[in-house]
Amino acid sequence: MSDTRAPWSVESARRGAGWLLGGAIDGDVVVSCRVRLARNLSGFPFLSRATLDQRLEVMDAVRAQIARASLGPALLWANIHELPSLERTLLVERHLMSKELAKGDLPRGLAVTLPDERVSVMVNEEDHLRVQCLLPGMALPQAWAMASEADDRLEDGLDIAYSSRYGYLTACPTNVGTGVRMSVMLHLPALRLSAEIEKVKRAASDMGLSVRGFYGENSEASGDLFQISNQRTLGRPESMILAELHEQIVPTVIAYERAARRNLLDKQPRLVEDQCGRALGLLLHARLLTPEETMGAISMVRLGRALNIADCAGIAADDATLLQLMLQVQPAHLQRIAERQMDQQQRREYRADLVRQRLTPATGA
Amino acid sequence: MSDTRAPWSVESARRGAGWLLGGAIDGDVVVSCRVRLARNLSGFPFLSRATLDQRLEVMDAVRAQIARASLGPALLWANIHELPSLERTLLVERHLMSKELAKGDLPRGLAVTLPDERVSVMVNEEDHLRVQCLLPGMALPQAWAMASEADDRLEDGLDIAYSSRYGYLTACPTNVGTGVRMSVMLHLPALRLSAEIEKVKRAASDMGLSVRGFYGENSEASGDLFQISNQRTLGRPESMILAELHEQIVPTVIAYERAARRNLLDKQPRLVEDQCGRALGLLLHARLLTPEETMGAISMVRLGRALNIADCAGIAADDATLLQLMLQVQPAHLQRIAERQMDQQQRREYRADLVRQRLTPATGA
C-alpha cells in the first residue's frame, strides 16, 4: 500500500491497471465492473450555465470534501485542465476518467485512490461530481457498495441537489433519479465470431440497456470487449438496476459466451484454431501493429487460451498479461512505457516490439 | 538416373519438380526458363479441322518418332485423355503440360523425360506437337539448346509443315514463323511491393513481350511469380528472341528487382520486416490456408530470406524448399502427397499442416 505513484507514472503504465487483473470472478468472460454516480451541488447552476467563479467554487468545495472523506489509503488529486495532453489521455485510457473530462481548459479535477485506482471522482465533468468505482471481474455488488460508500462520505459534507420527487438532479435528464450507471465490461470473442453478438445487442437494447465498446459511447467494440450498462435511471432504484444486471443479464450473457466457445470448439475446431493461430502469428511476427488489430489479435489469443488451443496455450503471457497488454498498447500508455514521445509510425513499431516481447518466453539460463 | 517414377507418383509430388531447384544461376530472382516449339505434320489438317482418325494417325506418328528420338535416359508416355482428372491436374501444376492439353477426351498424349522432367512433348494440343524444355534458374540458352536438339531429333523422322516464306506453320497465326515461345519465370516480390511491377509490365508489353502469372495466359500472378515471354514469332529468328530476353530484358528486370529489394531494406526496413514477418506468422500459425494466400506468404518469406530478415532467415526451409512448397500446396499435389482425395476444406487443413511442418525445425535429439 506504499506505492502512491500517479496513474500516469512510468511504473503504473508498465504495471497496468488494477481493474484488468486476471483471476477474478468469472474472469474468463467478465473483465471489470463499474458503478458511476452523478451528483450536483445545490445552490450552484449546472456546469453548462455556471460562471468560471462558480466552477472554481464547486471544485474547491468538492475537493475539500474529497480530502476529508478518506476514500482510500492514499489519494491523488489532479487539476486536469493543467495536465499535459498525454497525461490526460493516459487517465482516459485507464478508464479513470471520461474523454469529456479530458477536454477543454476550464477548471476540472480528478481524484483517484492509490495504489488501487478503484475509486475516482471526476469534478466538473458533465455534473459537478461523478463518483466511480471500478473492480476486476464479476463484482458489481462490491463496486456498487464501494461507490455508494464513497458517495455517502462525500455527501456527508456537501449539499447535494436532490428532489424528493425526482431523486438526484443531474445535468442530463437521462441521469435524473438515482444518477447511477452500472456497467459490466465483457470479453465476448465467441459471440462476435458466431455473429450472435448482434442478438445480444438487440436483446440488451430491448431491455433498456446499452452495449458499447471499450472506449465508451461512440467507440466500436475493440478487442471484442463490450460494455453493458443501464440506460434508464429515473424511477428505478439502484437495487433493481443491480439485480437486473448482476442476477439476470450478465449471467445470461456469460452463459451465452461460454456456450458459444464450447460450440466453436465442438463444431468448428479447425476454424477457431485457425483464427486464434493467425492472431498469435500476427502478434509474434508483425513488426508494425495498429491498436485495432492488436486488440483484435489479443482477443483471439485470449480465446485460444480459454479453449486450450495448442499455440495460444503455450505463450508466455497469462490472461492477466493479455488484458494489461490491451491497455498498454494504447497510444499514451505506449509512450509512457517507452518514456518518449512517438509519432504513429514509431508507436506501431514499439507496439509490435512490446507485444512480441511480452508473448515470447524469456530465453537463456 | 534410375528413378523413373511418373511425375504424378507420390514420390515425385513429395520431391517437387526439377525446374524449381534452388541454387540455380540468378536463382534469387529467376525461378526457371522455358522454351516451347510449336510444330505440325504436313499432310494433316490442323487439329481444329482434323477427324478422329487423323488425330490418331498424328498421335501414332509422333509417338513413334518420340520413341526413336532418345530424348532422355528414360521417357514417360501418357495418353492424357485416358488419365484421371487428378493426374492431369498434377501434370499441369508441374508445368509439364498446358491446361488445354488436360481438357477434353479426344486422343492426346504427353511424353516426359525422366527423372529430370526437363523435356516434354505435348501431342495434339493446339498444334500436332509442342516440344518444351524447362530448366531451373537463368538458363534460357541451355533450354533453347535442349529444346532445339529435341526438335531436331523429332523432325528427323517426321514431315514437318514448313513454308519457305513463313517458316513453321502453326494452328494459331501468332506462332507462325519460328513457332518458338521463350519464357522466363521470375520471382519479383520487391517490384510488386513497390508497385513498380506495373512499369515492368508496360515496358514489356511495349517491347512485344507478355507478362503472365504462374499458371499461364489468364492467371493472375500468384506468389509474385511472373512469366515474361515473347509474343511475336514471325520474321524474327530464334537467336534474336533469345538474345533479347537473355541479354537485355531479363537482366534488366533482375537488376530492377534486386535494386527494389535493396531499396526496401534501406528506405523502409520496418515495413518490409513487417510484411515478411506477417507472412511467416501466417504460415507458422494458420490452421487453414488457401493456395493464393500460401503462395503470397511463401513469396514474402522468400524475400525475407533474401534480405536476411531475422525471422525468415531462421526458418528450417531453404530457398529450394520454399519454391517446391509453392508447387506442393497446389490442390492436386497436395492430394497426391496426402495419398487421399480431399475436398477444399480438407485441402486447406492439410496445406496448413504441411507448410507448418516444412518451415518448423525438427525438434528432438
Provide the spatial order of strands within the biggest beta sheet of chain A.
2-3-4-5-1-8-10-9
How many angstroms does the end-to-end distance of chain A come to? Answer: 33 Å
* Helical amount of chain A: 40-55%
Secondary-structure-based class of chain A equals alpha+beta
What is the mean predicted local confidence, pLDDT of chain A? Answer: 91
Q: How much of the sequence of chain A is in beta strands?
A: 15-25%
CATH architecture of the largest domain in chain A: 2-Layer Sandwich
Task: State the helix count of chain A.
Answer: 14
The unreliable regions of chain A are none
Q: Biggest protein-protein interface?
A: A-B, 19 and 19 residues
| Gyration radius of chain A, in Å | 21 Å
Oligomer status: homodimer
Number of strand segments of chain A: 10
| Main sheet specs of chain A | 8 strands, antiparallel
The helix/strand order of chain A is HEHEHHEEEHEEEHHEEHHHHHHH
CATH topology of the largest domain in chain A: Creatine Kinase, Chain A, domain 2
